[in-house]
Amino acid sequence: MINLRRHRAILLAYLGMLLLLLLTSVVAPGFLSAAHLRSTVVLAAFIGIVALGQTFVIIGGGIDLSVPWVLNAAAVLMTLAAAGQNGPLLYIVPLLLVAGALVGAINGLGVALFGVPPIIMTLAVNVILQGGILVFTGGAPTATAPPAIQFLAVGRIAGFPVILILWIVIAVVATLLLSRSAFGRYLYAVGSSAAVATFSGVPTLATTVAAYTLSGFAAALAGMLLTGYTAQAYLGMGDPYLFTSIAAVAIGGASILGGSGNYIGTIAGALVLTILTGLLPALNLSNGALLVVYGVVILVTVSLGSESIAAFLGSFRRARRGDGAAL
Amino acid sequence: MTDFLKATAVVKRYGGIVALGRADLSARAGEVHALLGENGAGKSTFIQILAGAVRADSGTITLAGEAYRPKNPEAAQAAGVAAVFQELSLIPDLTVAENVWFRHEPLSPLGTVRAATLNAATAELFARYRFPDIRPDREVRRLTLAERQVVEIGKALSRNPRVLILDEATSALPPAETEWLLGLARSVAAAGTLVIYISHRLGEVRAIADRITVFRNGETVAAYETQAVDDETIIADMLGRRMDRLYPPRVATATDRVALGLRGFGAGSKLSGIDLDLKEGEVLGVAGLQGHGQRELFQALFGLGRAEGSVALWGQPRDIRSPRAALSGRDGLALVPEDRRSHGLMLAKSIRENLTLSVVRRFTRFGLTDPTREQALVEEMIRTLRIKADSPEQPAGTLSGGNQQKVIFGKMLLTEARILLLYDPTRGIDVGTKGEIFTLMRRLAAEGYAILFYSSDLAELVHVADRVAVLRNGRLAAVLEGDDNSEHGILRAAMIERAAA
Amino acid sequence: MTMLAADSRERRAMPGLSPSLKATLTDRAPILIPVAMLILLVAIYASLREGVFTLDELNLDTAAALTLVLAATGQTIVLLRGGIDLSIGGTISLGTVLAATQFRDDPAHVALWTVLILVIGALVGVVNGVLITALRLQPFLVTLATWSILSGTALIILPIDGGGLPSFWMAFGSRNWLGLSSAVWLLAVLVLFWLWFRRTRLGIAIRATGSNERSAFLSGVSPLGINVATYALSSLFAALAALYLTTQTGAGSPTIGKDYILPSVAAAVIGGISLFGGRGGLIGTIIGAYILTIIGNLVFVLSISSYWQPIVSGVILLIAVLASSIAERSARRSLT
Questions:
Q1: Which chains touch C (3 or more CB pairs under 8 A)?
Q2: How far, in Å, CA of A246 to CA of A30, rounded?
Q3: Picking from B120-124, C86-90, C167-171, C270-274, which range would have the lowest pLDDT averaged per residue?
Q4: For residue B481, what is the domain's CATH number?
Q5: Which residues of A fall within a CB distance of 8 Å from B391?
Q6: Which of the ends of chain C has fewer CB neighbours closer than 10 A, N or C?
Q7: Are the Cβ atoms of C322 and A114 closer than 8 angstroms?
Q8: Is residue A327 part of a domain?
Q9: Is residue B30 part of a domain?
Q10: What is the CA radius of gyration of chain B?
Q11: pLDDT tens digits, one per residue of A120-179
Q12: CB count, 10 Å around CB of C1?
């Protein structure tokens, strides 16, 4: 019972996803075909991988606004450096993953060591990266993604999308990290209360830096994979992922204040967002309608998922009983 | 004379916890009415209800013959009830004058608040009540705690209240200002205001209160005219019939082995030159008036903030710069912090997660936690400490104060540290759990633990500790044992310098 | 370090010392630093270009900065309250779109829709404030969601940039009085408004709530009232920003608002507003907005790639926030 309550938000997210699928099958019968489901999952995987880092950062009580241009920088630099060849990837990919992680570490240090509010720290890093990449490329990157990357993003093994396999591996690792590792415990503790964590001997600085580092790593990984899907890197390709990564985490039941949530929920969040994106054209609805629906979905899930609605209903019940509500 | 303020059968619950079972009070205009009771007796809840910060579940209150049921602090203030809480209600980034007149500022024709007008009004108010010298244009965050307390009193007076509530208003004040406040309370009452005065200091109460109401365990147990009652009766009412069985028999279990050795230990300007040995099997009490270095001693030992001098644990010199370094397993030390809710517990997290936070490595194998082993540790602690909960997954914030404290003890015991720093571990905890905690402390000492124990309640030190180290002005004033370890002896050591000065 | 701050002040002598010079300086650092930055940037700009210290230049720069200033005014009020408002992006987009699609070449009609746009703006803030208070939701998430809803609505009304505005409306944007452009006059009105507003009861209460929410509540501030007022003001200023923006662009844009969300926060933070609430003022924010605008001018004058602009802005933002973090810490330490 208690567990059900704790994971109510996540259950709701999956319930919502199933309802959406059901709705889809009614209004757009072709939608539930294997091909379409596959492409939905592939698209969700990109959101899911970016949101991986965002999940860790938000659980730790922060937020990472530098995701778009870490992603974009990795994508642009990888395609330019590889110039369509598979060979150089052997060193470029690890190098860029480390670079992404380093950017994340800088974010983490700014937040944990210097006390800069996460919003400002990661925002500043984002615009600096944005400018840097724009200056570097002169505003017009043209290189295409190497075949190996394209294979990772859109290829299949025995009919199964490669990226989905990758996502499953990432999901398992992330879930183990959060629920079964010391780091995970520390992260929830830091997000719940940094003071309690310090008093309990938790290495708060290292934990915070690690979360942002992971976020930088995940964004860089997602950026490179995404070039395989779009066949080339382009400027601004990361911008939509700021909103979707945060939205996926929020829909997945994490508190933006930190200390709660998990990656299983974020996966549901990523799927919900992607299904919506696919569903609305089928309903002949515009991009604008999609944004409206996104906003409503966030509001509804966040209010249902948090304790606030329970408190709200509770206060009504109290009010009806005729005794006062606090606050 | 009729009752100006009358409260009947006021009840307040928080979840399953009863803060007020049945509070009654009747007080007249123009008197100083003292509210007495132990920590957790329900006084604070009661005055928060009067002040509109909390709403009662049931019961009736009348003010000047009319039903009084403020739905927020604003409504209470409008009805003429002004409170000075222990928890100050000042805004750090506003000036003294802005704070005093906050929410009822005199307005210019443009609807603005002019700083000059505000400062003048504040100066006039402060002069009328002969306030200590505080500049109205200073920002409150630059003031000392005592100055803030004084500003808070000014803020309450600025509303010309019909009822003025002073909750432990002298706790942060130096002697001269305490005298001033007592005089102020009397003169405000003489002018027709009802002053409700809450203090732990019986002497103060005796000096100014016309009548006394005593709370115990959330209920009103007695009401007296001050002249008609002696101190012993009041204390007996406050404590109930419980005292002596609270403390376990004290068997000396200390060995000669020094667990924690301090030489020239200090922390900044607040604590210096401490030479002290805590022995294996010993409960060493720490006493001192508020703010004389005991907090700094515990924090510095636990690696919070700077420390000077040398520390040896079990004979090994150690340099502890963070709680993480202090919590180094069997040879380390563990702390039960003063502030349970913001330093001790993750309130939204489960009992299990709280208990094992400091010892995740104890059940981690190959980088993964082992839920079975964790569960075993958790269940052992819940059993040993008799933590009352539905399940280990219950959020810690839903437990009663006593059980929350047990979770913190469990978290500390799991670290296996054999030197325990307990900072006021029984504050605000029900009597039953207090007894359990003392029994546990003596049992741990018998097992060879070494315990450093600060309490704001002197009786606890006298009955539980083997010896008591008394701090005065950040220095070790005395170490008392045997017959010297008495409330009288501790107070004398803690205050004597002040009395001589 | 909060645990160290609690009680260690007790043994101080009672009468207050006069604030030391150092304390005054660290107190003022959040405003002195942006002022110094602005002077430095203007000096560099003046060394590269003739005629920087002319009314023309002031008119042009103010016209360029004013939309951001207006957007950042609302953001400043919310940040002082200790919140954040991402929805201003949606409000600005929707405002320009409504103006571009609804304004006709008839002053009365334009006046009607101007009022309507402002009312819609204020209502957006009321919704934000109610959701944040009643459902106890985080401002970041609530305003992220309402931003999405408003942007979507703008896109539905006007899918691509366009629409038209009456010529007299746009002429207003380039009008001059006494040698000063309408933007400068508007800015002057805004400053006057602020000097008045920050001394009103509401202005003080907003700052106080951001400084210490619990104390403000205990002193009689209503949580719902303060949140509704704060976010309504924010959205109202966003709507004003939208209206002014249309006098400059002459069109509606359903996506333009997002360009103002984070810069509005940046301008405020550069100008010394603390994200922890309670500290700073609009003058700092205006300076912050000018700093961001002049960086754009500099990049142009230096005829280097305009892509340097975000880099320089980001670095300045970091410097400003580090400086105020340090000032904040020393302010907290001065309590102990």
A1: A, B
A2: 30
A3: C167-171
A4: 3.40.50.300
A5: 2
A6: N
A7: yes
A8: no
A9: yes
A10: 25
A11: 999 999 999 999 998 888 877 777 888 888 888 888 888 788 899 999 999 999 999 999
A12: 12
Quick check: C332 pLDDT over 70? no
Domain of residue B404 covers 341-414
Q: How many residues does chain B have?
A: 501
CA distance C64 to chain B (A): 32
> pLDDT, tens digit, for every residue of C249-275?
888 898 898 889 989 999 999 888 888
| Count of structural domains, chain A | 1
**Position B236 pLDDT exceeds 50:** yes
Let me know whether B65 and B182 are in one domain. Answer: yes
Mean pLDDT of chain B: 87
Q: Which residue has the higher pLDDT, B230 or A7?
A: B230
CB A196, CB B343: distance < 8 Å: yes
Contact list in A for residue C307 (CB cut-off 8 A) is: 131, 134-135, 139
- Start-end of H helices in chain C: 2-5, 21-48, 55-80, 88-102, 107-134, 139-157, 167-174, 182-197, 201-211, 213-218, 223-249, 258-270, 282-301, 308-333
Interface of B with C in 387-416 (CB under 8 A): none
Token readout for B388 is: 């009352």
Question: B319: which 2 tokens?
Answer: 């340099």
Residue B351 · residue B383 · CB < 8 Å: no
CB within 8 Å: A324 and B369:
no
Q: Which of C307, C316, C326, C333 to mutate to test the interface with A (most CBs of A within 10 A)?
A: C307
Phi first, then psi, for residue B214 (nearest 5°) are -110, 130
Do both B87 and B146 map to the same domain? Answer: yes
Hey, are the CB atoms on B337 and C7 less than 8 Å from each other?
no
- pTM of the model as a whole: 0.87
Comparing CA positions, the residue from B100, B142, B105, B91 lying closest to residue C199 is B105
Indicate the domain borders of chain C. Answer: 25-333
Chain A hits for B299, CB-CB cut-off 8 Å, are none
- Token digits of residue C37: 């930055």
Give the number of C-alpha atoms closer than 13 A to the C-alpha of residue C100, restricted to the C-beta side.
Answer: 28
CA gap A138, A134 in Å, rounded: 6
Predicted confidence at residue B194, as pLDDT, reads 94
Kindly report, residue by residue over B262-284, the tens digit of the pLDDT. Answer: 999 998 888 889 999 999 999 99
Beta strand pairing status for B81-84 and B163-167? parallel
Confidence of residue B110 (pLDDT cuts 50, 70, 90): confident
- Complex ipTM: 0.83
% of residues, chain A, pLDDT over 70: 91
Looking at the structure, tell me whether residues B193 and B46 fall in a common domain. yes
Distance of CA C41 to CAs B2, B39, C289, C293, C296, Å?
Answer: 73, 60, 13, 10, 11
Residue B29 falls inside a structural domain: yes
Measured distance CA(C186)–CA(C241) in Å, rounded: 11
